[in-house]
Amino acid sequence: MKKILLAITALCAVFVMDAKVVLPNVIGDNMVLQRDSEVKLWGTAEPGKKVTVSTSWSKEKTVVKAGDDGKWTVSVKTAGAGGPFEITFNDGDILTLKNILLGEVWFCSGQSNMEMPIKG
After folding, report:
1. Which of 20, 33, 68, 112 is geometrically suited to a Cys-Cys bond with 93, CB 3.0 to 4.6 A?
2. How far is CA 58 from the centre of its chain?
3. How many CB atoms lie within 10 A of CB 46?
4. Residue 4 to residue 9: CA distance in whole angstroms
5. What is the DSSP string of 34-90?
């Protein structure tokens, strides 16, 4: 029985290793991207594989080739505020991100100044 479980586990590992586009945790469904700018998207795929990135707000398709380490990076122009949009990554297997919004993205940090009301 142990040999059968080990064989099944090995086969599953082979199928999981069949590379498809993998994105970092910060890139996913329901995200907000800065409007009217150029944003970077990145991830991994099978080394040397071409990845086509297309967005529903633009007819442009961007093709990038994964490096020897499988990593790839691409810049995508964004449109004006709106949504929801989709981003599709295709390396033979299709991965689609849904409910992407374009708008203002602000990062705030601080300590006591973060407690002050906006009106002063």
Report:
1. 20
2. 17
3. 17
4. 9
5. ESSSEEEEEEE-STT-EEEEEETT-S-EEEEE--TTSEEEEEEE--SSEEEEEEEEE
C-beta atoms surrounding 105 within 10 Å: 13
Task: Round to whole Å and give the CA distance between 52 and 20.
Answer: 12
- pTM of structure: 0.75
Q: Reduced to 3 DSSP states, what percent helix, strand and coil does the chain have, rounded to the nearest 5?
A: 15, 40, 45
Which two three-digit tokens encode residue 41? Answer: 């998207």
For the stretch 77-91, pLDDT in tens is: 999 999 999 999 999
d(CA 67, CA 44): 9
